[in-house]
Design brief:
Blueprint lengths: L1 H27 L6 H21 L2 H5 L2 E8 L6 E2 L1 H13 L4 E11 L5 E13 L5 E14 L5 E10 L9
Parallel strand pairs: 1-6
Antiparallel strand pairs: 1-2, 3-4, 4-5, 5-6
Length: about 170
């Protein structure tokens, strides 16, 4: 009886290198993320979103955010979740002369390919204190996550105003 147990243990020990080899080969077969392609795809998604924003179609605009997204804009409260973000978008679009557009400058995708962030420049036009339209420049960071269908969804949208150019001091 003891001899059989020793044979089973020895057989199991011999199988370990084979199992390790199979595991290593399986890992090698794991799909690699084409970071450059994902970055291009995400930047294109952002450009399409900017175009959607120019149409005034609230559903098309809000569709780019994840259900639990967070939006943080200067001088405004934080908007969390699609219902709050939808209200923010609807109210913004009601402002006479309101326009927004942006362009992604850089994309950075995680090694797993399911998370990313963009550095972006945006421009917002709306009535100023005197009622005349004023255009302001912003810089922003947007954080993105792929949903279950493989589509990029914005999860955090953060912007701040670009400071006016200061003349060089002498």
């Amino acid at each position: 009886m003891r001899a059989r147990r020793i044979v089973r243990v020895e057989g199991a020990l011999r199988a370990i290198p084979a199992l390790l080899l199979i595991a290593a080969l399986s890992a090698c077969g794991a799909q690699r993320v084409d970071s450059a392609a994902e970055e291009r795809s995400l930047m294109q998604t952002s450009r399409e979103w900017s175009q959607a924003a120019s149409t005034g179609d609230v559903d098309a605009i809000v569709n780019y955010w994840a259900d639990d997204a967070v939006v943080m804009m200067p001088g405004l409260p934080t908007f969390t979740g699609k219902p709050a973000i939808r209200s923010y978008v609807e109210e913004s679009l009601k402002v006479p002369g309101f326009r927004i557009s942006w362009e992604p400058l850089e994309a950075h995708v995680s090694s797993s390919g399911d998370m990313a962030y963009l550095l972006e420049r945006s421009e917002v036009t709306m009535p100023g204190p005197s009622g005349q339209l004023v255009t302001q420049q912003f810089r922003g960071v947007t954080i993105w996550k792929k949903d279950a269908g493989g589509d990029w969804k914005n999860v955090v949208d953060l912007s701040n105003a670009v400071a006016p150019e200061q003349p060089p001091s002498h």
